[in-house]
Each structure stands twice: as C-alpha cells, then as structure tokens.
Amino acid sequence: MNTQTTMRPIPENETGDGEVLSLIPYTGPWTKEEAAHLLRRTLFGPTRQQILDAVANGMNNTVDTLLAPVTDTLPLTFSTDDTISNVGESWVNEYMPAGDQQPTIVARFASLFGWISQNLFEPNLSIREKMTLFWQNHFAVTYDNEPKMSYDYIQLLRDNCLGNFRQLIKDITIDSQMLVFLNGASNNQFSPNENYARELLELYTIGKGPQIGEGDYTNYTEDDIAEIARILTGWVVENYLSQSGNLVGSNFYAILHDPGTKQLSEKFGNAIINNADAGEYSALIDIIFQQDEVARFICRKLYRWFVNYDLTPEVNATIIEEMATELIANNYDIEPVMSLLLRSEHFYSIALRGTIIKNPVEYMVSMYTTSGSQMNFDLPTTYQMHLIFGWISENIGMHYFAPPQVAGWTAYYQSPGFSQMWINAATIKKRVEYTYYALYNGLDANGQQFPIDVLNLLDSFDYPNDDVEVIKELELLYCCKPLSATQRNFLANQLNGGFGSSVWTTAYDTYATDPSNQSNANVIKNQMRVTLLNLFKMPEFHII
C-alpha cells in the first residue's frame, strides 16, 4: 500500500488523534489512500482506474468533477406486460391503459426499480447517486401505486441533489408523491390534516430541539403545526392512474384552501401570513428558512451521511457551524457546502476514515463496481439482474424505495448506534451468503449469470503475478483502513493456495500466455474468488 507522506504544518485546531476541527483546505499528501477515501464516500465503490485518475488530477479537479452536472437517462420499458409503451422506449410520459392496469403498473415499477439500480452501477465519477439516496433517506417517501408519480418524485431528488435546499423543500411540498404519502392531498379547510406540517418542521427543515413545555419545543410549537396545516390546504393530486392521456400531477383549488389569516409563534417572529392562495406555501417556507437552525439541521444530516455519525460537541461547535455559515452565505445552495466539506482538512483526517458502516446498497454495489464488472446483456436481462440486486439489498436491510420509517432508515437517526445498526447476527450472516453468491454464481436472470469479474479485476493490476502485490491492490481498493501483517499473509496464502508465492506466479503466467485456456483461467479465477471471499468477511471491507 502506498505509504508516501509529506510534511505539513500542524493546524492549531488539530486534536491528538489527527482530527482537524476546521474546514480549512486540505494541504496534506494526495496519494491513492486519500483519493480512495474521497471516492468511497461519494461513489458506490471506486474502480482502480478512478483512484489513479483522481491522484493524477489532484483533489480540487476531482472534487469539481464529482460535483459537476451529468447527463441523465430515463427508465425504459423492458417487458411486454406494459400494454402501452414499446420495449426499449421510456414510459414516463405515457398514460395508463384502460381496463386492467395492474400488469402495466407492475411492469413500470419493475422498470423504475431496475433503472435506479442500473444508475448505481454506472461508472460515472459523480456524487449524484449518493446524494440522491441521501435525500431519499431525508424525505423517506415510499412508493405508491402510481409509477409516474414515483418517477417524478425520485427525479426531483436527482435533478436537485446539489441544488437549492429551500427550493427543493418548496417543490417537495407540492409534489404528488409527497401529497399522497403524508396526506397533503386530503388536507383542506373543511378537514385539516397535520401530517405533512409536522414532518416539514420536525424532519425536513428545522428539527424539534429539546422540549421546553407542553406543546412547546425549542424550534417550534404545536400551534405552529396547526397553523401550517391551514396554510398548506388546497392542494390535490389529479389524474391518478388516469386513462385519459393526462399525466398525474398536483393542482391547487382555492375552494379547498383556508383563506383566513394565519400567525406563527415567536419561534418564527410571530409572522403573520395572509391569504395568498397557491403561493401561500412558498411564503411559509421562506419564513421557516429565515431561521439559521434550518442550516444547522441539514448540515448535521449531511455530516452524518458523508463524514461521521458521531456528532461531538466540538464538531457541532466548529464543523457544523462552518458548514451552516457557508450554506446561509450561498442562499441555501447545497453544492458550495459539499465543495467546502470535501476539500477540507477535517474530511481527510485519519481518525475519520472507517467511521461509517456500509449500508446494504453500498455493500452489494461496491463488490461489483470496484472490480470493474460490467453487464453486457440485452435490456430485459439487464433490468431483471438489477431487480434481483434490489431484492438482495432489501433482504439485508435496505429497500431503496421503502424506508421503514417516516424519518428514514434507523441507521441514520437512531442514536447511539447509527450505522452500526446495519450489522447484527442476522444481517452479517446474509452479507456473507450474498458475498459467496456474488463471487461464485452472481445475479441470475433469463439463463444468464453475472458474477464479480475477478479476472478483469486481476488483469487491471500492475503486477498480477505477484501475490503480495495483488493483496496490496485489493487492500487499497476494498479496505479503508490498513490490514494487519497477519491479515495480509492470510490473504496471500489464500491466493497461492498455501503453496508459496512462486506457485501463484507460475499459475498466473501460465494463464496469461493463453487466457482462452479455460482450465488455466479457472485455477486463477478460483483462487481469486476464495481470496475475495475472505477479504469481504473482514471488518475493513464493511466500513468506509
């Protein structure tokens, strides 16, 4: 493993374990280890070439690329069960069929889920997929029975994952999926519903804070929730599963809106909101965002997702305050805050590497993507493969479109365990089982198999015939913390079958002279599989 170091000034605010409590620009060594750390936190498993490119391009250029906009795709129809859309074309702007809609609904959701999974596997150097999953956890919306509505919701997150937080809150407030999910579509002046109003404050923007008295929290009151519910009346969802050719969407009806004057508590400066019909929700959100605690609230969540779940008083007083100041200074645009964080001394602190346990999606995807394994199947088979992957992720604790609570996955909000909650006796056993499955059998659909391409991985190394060098390469790619000498020796012995380095060298060189010889290739393939199987059991692979 590269252990190159260079001298740098020790910041005054560096702790004894090397953690810098400041977002000053990182000026330390930029080696494969630092590049790999950045990419593990922002991608779902970097490839060796991505790490090498990041080293060559430097930290600033790499961060610029990660945060740059990327071209998007559309979910495609892959099954003739969709009776309206043609295979290979997108269904997102197609109406629902007359008569029995269920086959088309099932087919379109399968397409949507397959498309989401396919995006995770794409080798783009972009933070978008990680950010989109962050927002999916933040809003924690579960899918409904309307595929178009679910697509619009997830695409809203994708399009705005690094955009303006205030505008995203405005857009999500009247998004059809959210209106259904938290009963906003049935919130009207005749029967107010407080579900969305409560989560808008507690989970989405400002947080409760400690309770001060009955119905009185640090950042808002129960009366605020009641008034906000009145403000948000009048929005409905139209053309739900429509057969008319009109697509599902939200609309405002003044007759359903409470036209009375609303007043918020002293938490919001006793703000008075007069009737503004369809624009009233926007005025409300502008008032909420006048409170600086909104910036701190979302920055804490960003920090827990990308840096460390442990928000110490020192981190709150320094890092979170700096992030919040940057967010407010940039009118609540997320991209400048992420740019500041990913270039900071704090982010690259040795003490903060390996502090997060991979969620099930990160765990499964990283085995494949880091190896450079690529699907080369037709569209139906590719989407079926991704549906199987989604089922596996769900089976070990994470359904992408169905967070278990309105607050998201418990690993991102439940203290003191946080990401440690991904691992228990049942899930660790399943992780090992699916590791074996991914290596030896692989995703299996339409008579095709997609195991991890261990030969492609091995052939990408500089010295694939040297077992010691191979283990160093695997350690860099898959482990965020250094392995012990005992672990390295154990893995090398797995690779060479316990017969010494020369045996591995001979076996690989024999394979390399004629890669088409299946007998020779299988020897190498099997030894790589058993080595990776043991590596993937090690704690260092389960953390980032």
Mind explaining what this structure looks like?
Among the domains are: 127-288, no CATH class; 360-541, no CATH class. Helices cover 49% and strands 4% of the residues. It has helices at 32-42, 48-57, 59-67, 102-121, 128-139, 147-159, 165-173, 176-181, 195-205, 222-231, 280-288, 293-306, 313-329, 334-342, 360-369, 379-395, 425-441, 454-459, 467-478, 485-495, 501-513, 518-535, and strands at 211-213, 216-217, 235-238, 249-252, 262-263, 272-273, 443-445, 448-450. The strands form four sheets. Strands 1-2 form a two-stranded antiparallel ribbon. A two-stranded antiparallel ribbon has the order 3-4. It has a two-stranded antiparallel ribbon with strand order 5-6. Strand 5 and strand 6 form a beta hairpin. Helix 20 (485-495) runs antiparallel to helix 22. The model is unreliable at 1-11 (pLDDT under 50).
Query: Total number of β-strand segments?
Result: 8
CA(first)-CA(last) distance: 17 Å
How many strands, which pairing sense, and closed or not: the largest β-sheet?
A: 2 strands, antiparallel
Q: What is the helical fraction, as a range of percent?
A: 40-55%
User: How much of the residues is beta strand, in percent?
Assistant: under 5%
Rg calc? 25 Å
Low-confidence stretches: 1-11
**Major sheet: arrangement of strands:** 1-2
| N to C succession of SSEs | HHHHHHHHHEEHEEEEHHHHHHHEEHHHHH
The shape is globular
Overall structural class, as computed from helix and strand content, comes to mainly alpha
Mean pLDDT: 95
Protein name: DUF1800 domain-containing protein
Organism: Wandonia haliotis
